[in-house]
Predict the structure of Prepilin peptidase.
Amino acid sequence: MEVWFPVALAVLGASSGVPLTRAAERMLRGGRRFGWPVQVVVGASTGALVAGVAFVLGPVEELPAYLYLVGIAVVLAVVDITEKRLPNAIIYPSLVALPALLTAAAWVTNQWPALLGAALGAAALFALYLLLALVAPGGIGLGDVKLAAVIGFPLGYLGWTPVFVGGFSGFLIGSLVSLAAIAARRATLTSSLPFGPSMLAGAFVGVFFS
């Protein structure tokens, strides 16, 4: 793979800071508008994730699915951090778009076992989070349960190791974020912090370890 490939995609990703920020604003219920600092963070985060995904996977047929994951991940993270919710307007279409993109990739490459892995990965993470939501309703929300299915598709397509690594990393990152917030006196042991960004960050850790 040529070096220019991830670099070019990183530039395109970084340039999407404004449109992705605007997309997040449209999902907010309070009509909030973000200034340039948030747009810069969104653009930098998108560029870094796009570069990482392109570097790890290369110019493969399934790459569009993972670039789509980057786009929705950034928007979902902004909304969840701001309003502590994961909008169905993104989650539900993604439950169709990601399987469709991965199915197209499997059809072109004849990688049907990978597509089966995607379905099983989504089912496994969905079942795990649903169980946790039923056992501890205050910790895991229904939005997190649905997001688990979303991230399970692209992780499962890459194999079971990314599913395990991505799932575990989400909980690890969430725990570290909670400890940091408590140490900074921004939260207490009973505070409810948005877990979606940690799940999404963990998902990309899983992708990078594929």
The CA atoms of residues 51 and 111 lie 24 Å apart. The chain has a mean pLDDT of 93.
